[in-house]
Structures are given as structure tokens and as C-alpha cells.
Specification:
Layout (H helix, E strand, L loop, with lengths): L3 H16 L2 H8 L3 H13 L11 H26 L3 H8 L11 H4 L11 E6 L21 H21 L9 E5 L11 H6 L4 H22 L3 E5 L21 H13 L10 E4 L6 E5 L2 E5 L15 H17 L6 E4 L6 E2 L3 E3 L8 H5 L8 E8 L3 E9 L17
Parallel strand pairs: 1-2, 2-3, 3-4, 6-7, 7-9
Antiparallel strand pairs: 1-10, 5-6, 8-9, 10-11
Length: about 400
């Protein structure tokens, strides 16, 4: 058992060990610095060791700092996750390669004999409403739509479009084709309660079926064209939120996910990319690209609202185009041609292309007394020097029985 003198020596040694110096030990305890110094020095000469459990001050401080560092690292990791941008989300979660918004060279470099070129065709596919059912008994039997009919119409679309491009054009030597995907590829099941009840399959099932169909479409194009440029924007039907979102619109849309899965198919994350296929999948609602010297803006069109019983969708479309051109001119993103869907009405001009639909006339249009519109998609040709030279509707209903008639007639 230690005597009183030895106990004081041990206490002094422990104080110096804990606080780091006689001065700091004196400041902490109020004991004279010289007393602590002498006693701790004598204890060291006698070979005494600090008591168990006495931790040097700097060790304690290091441990406290280590705990603070771990806490700050955890907070930083949480902040990084919450503020992770679009590129990080795609790379770290979906493992999708970094998007390159620059169009491929073949799309912007005119061929040497540009005057004899038919230009670059653009097949505009939008408003497929895959999975929706249109009951012909509710619309005077003017149209019907389901998965079987949808498959038939896409096959008819490809047959008709390829026939137009290769059998009805002079010198059909193309450097590639633009496949524009304008959104509303899905019927969706959150926009309207009636769609949830009447859709043929769920959105997840639709994704699997539609992904296979679009891969088939792209492969058909690759058999005829050396290059395919795919640009895709989101619509309003394929979202997974009740209301359309302005923040993160793309990441709440099954359209966007469909395009990303297509990109992964042709540009696998851990495999060899098919260099013939290139993609532009923007994070916002608009996609800007050039075909030769013509600047295009692709959007879905659900931003444009209004209209009346006489002008129909014409006024909101013209107002929306004017507002978008004005905004884009202020941010150095001018365009020559606006491409959009949404209204299921095919209009084609040198400044504005509004697409039809694969679904065609439905109960909504019939009940609102809207004009009948056959299912169709847009096909245009962009010339290196003259811009849009041909605009052709591609009707997607399988060919019906032809009725013979005179090439021209006059009413009596």
C-alpha cells in the first residue's frame, strides 16, 4: 500500500500526464506549478508510471476530433446524396454513360454533293399511348386501340416510312436518320383515374413490351441506314406523380427511363458501344439539335394550354411557339423549327411540326367533339442548303381494301 508521500508523487505524475505539462496542470487544479513539477520529476526518477485510466490530454483531444471528423463525414455524405445532380444520379445509380449533347458529325456536315442529296430524314414518333385501350363501340366505331393493334401500327409505320424513304425519293443515299421520340409513349396510370381502370396492362409491363418494340424499330433502321441519331423528350402521360413537376420532370417520367434503357442497350455500361447509334436525352423538357444548318427544338407540348372550339389547338400552339422562341433568343438557344406532339393532330410546315399519334381518335376527342384524326406520324427531310424540303404524313393503319375511282371527277 502506498504511503502519503508516494501518493502525492503519483498524483503529480498523473496530472502532468493528463494535462501535458506542469503549467497546464497548475492552471487546471490551482496547485503551485513548481510543486507539481518537482513531484512529477521525482516520480519519473523513481520509475513510477501513470495510473491506469489516465489518458494524456492530447490523446483525448485527438479522440474528440476523430469523433467530430466522423460526424462531419457522415453529414457531408448525406448532403452529397441529397444534392447529387442529374449526372451523378445517372452514373452512380442507373450506371448510364455520360450524356453527350453534341450531335454526331454526319448530322451537321453536309455531303460533298449536297445539291443531289435528299437530305436527312427525321421520323417523329410520339403519343403512342402504349397500354391504353380505345373502345370502338364508344366512338361510333371510328377507331379501336389495344396492344395487338399497337404492334400492327408500329409495323405498318416502319414499312410505310421505309417505303417512302427508299422507293419514292430520287437518289436515296442517306448518311443517317434522326429518330425523334416526343413523349407520351405510355398511356400512364396516374394522370386520369379512368386510365388506371381501363389500361390493358400496368406501366411496368408496358415498359418491357415497349422497350422491345423500340429496339426492333431501331434495328430496322440500322439495316437501312449507316447511322441513327435518337433524341427523346418526356411527355405528361408517363409520369409517376399526380401533378407534372417542374423540378426533376425527367426523373419522374417513364419516358425518360425508357430512353435511358435504350441507350444502355446500345451503349452498355460495361460493354462495347454501337457507334452507329447516338443519343440526346436532355434533363429538361426541350431538346435542341441541328440537322445540317437547320436548328430544331423538340418538346412534347403539354406546356401549351388553351384553345377554343373554332381555332382548336392552333392558338395555344402558336402562342407557345412564340413564347418559346422569345425565351430561347434571350439565352442564345434560337431554333428554326419547333417539333412537338401532345395534340394528336398532324401539322407540318417549315417552322412548325406537330405530330399525330399511334393511338388515333379516342373517347376523349369524341366526347369533346374534336375533329377526327387518323393515326399517323410525321416524316420530314432536311436538305443541307434548303432546310425542310419534304414533309410527309405516315399513316399507320394497315392498308384497307382499295376502292376504284376516277383520277378526277366533276359533280353534275
Amino acid at each position: 500500500m502506498k504511503d502519503k508521500k508516494e501518493t502525492k508523487l503519483q498524483e503529480a505524475l498523473d496530472l502532468v500526464t493528463e494535462h501535458g505539462s506542469p503549467y497546464l496542470a497548475s492552471k487546471a487544479t490551482g496547485l503551485p506549478e513548481s510543486t507539481i513539477d518537482k513531484r512529477s520529476d521525482k516520480a519519473a526518477r523513481l520509475g513510477m508510471k501513470p495510473s491506469k485510466g489516465v489518458v494524456p490530454r492530447h490523446d483525448r483531444e485527438v479522440k474528440v476530433l476523430e469523433r467530430k471528423v466522423k460526424m462531419l463525414q457522415a453529414q457531408l455524405k448525406q448532403i452529397e446524396f441529397e444534392e447529387m445532380g442529374a449526372i451523378e444520379i445517372k452514373q452512380k445509380i442507373f450506371k448510364v454513360a455520360k450524356l453527350d449533347p453534341t450531335p454526331p458529325d454526319w448530322l451537321i456536315t453536309p455531303p460533298e454533293q449536297s445539291s443531289h442529296s435528299a437530305g436527312i430524314p427525321t421520323l417523329f414518333c410520339s403519343d403512342w399511348h402504349w397500354g391504353e385501350v380505345v373502345d370502338q363501340s364508344q366512338i361510333a366505331k371510328k377507331n379501336a386501340f389495344n396492344l395487338r393493334i399497337a404492334h400492327e401500327r408500329v409495323r405498318c409505320l416502319m414499312e410505310s416510312a421505309l417505303d417512302l424513304m427508299f422507293n419514292h425519293m430520287v437518289n436515296p443515299n442517306y448518311e443517317g436518320i434522326v429518330l425523334a421520340l416526343g413523349g407520351d409513349m405510355f398511356s400512364g396510370d396516374v394522370l386520369h383515374e379512368e386510365l388506371t381502370e381501363s389500361n390493358e396492362i400496368t406501366t411496368m409491363q408496358t415498359m418491357l413490351d415497349l422497350l422491345g418494340v423500340l429496339i426492333w424499330v431501331i434495328n430496322q433502321l440500322l439495316e437501312k441506314f449507316p447511322n441513327v441519331f435518337i433524341v427523346g423528350v418526356t411527355g405528361n402521360h408517363g409520369r409517376n406523380t399526380r401533378k407534372i413537376r417542374h423540378k426533376g420532370r425527367a426523373y419522374t417520367s417513364f419516358d425518360w427511363l425508357l430512353y435511358q434503357l435504350l441507350k444502355r442497350h446500345y451503349h452498355p455500361y460495361d460493354g462495347k458501344a454501337d457507334q452507329r447509334v447516338s443519343f440526346l436525352i436532355p434533363d429538361g423538357p426541350d431538346a435542341l439539335f441541328k440537322v445540317y444548318n437547320t436548328r430544331y427544338c423538340l418538346t412534347h407540348g403539354d406546356q401549351f394550354r388553351g384553345g377554343d372550339g373554332i381555332t382548336g389547338a392552333l392558338m395555344p400552339i402558336m402562342r407557345g411557339d412564340h413564347k418559346k422562341r422569345s425565351r430561347n433568343s434571350q439565352i442564345d438557344q434560337e431554333y428554326d423549327v419547333l417539333m412537338m406532339g401532345h395534340f394528336h393532330t398532324l401539322w407540318q410546315s417549315r417552322r412548325l411540326i406537330v405530330n399525330g399519334s399511334i393511338k388515333g381518335y379516342d373517347e376523349y376527342a369524341y366526347n369533346l367533339n374534336l375533329p377526327y384524326e387518323p393515326p399517323s406520324q410525321s416524316l420530314t427531310f432536311t436538305h443541307p442548303d434548303r432546310g425542310i424540303t419534304f414533309s410527309v404524313p405516315v399513316y399507320v393503319d394497315p392498308k384497307k381494301k382499295k376502292i376504284k375511282s376516277s383520277w378526277v371527277s366533276v359533280s353534275k
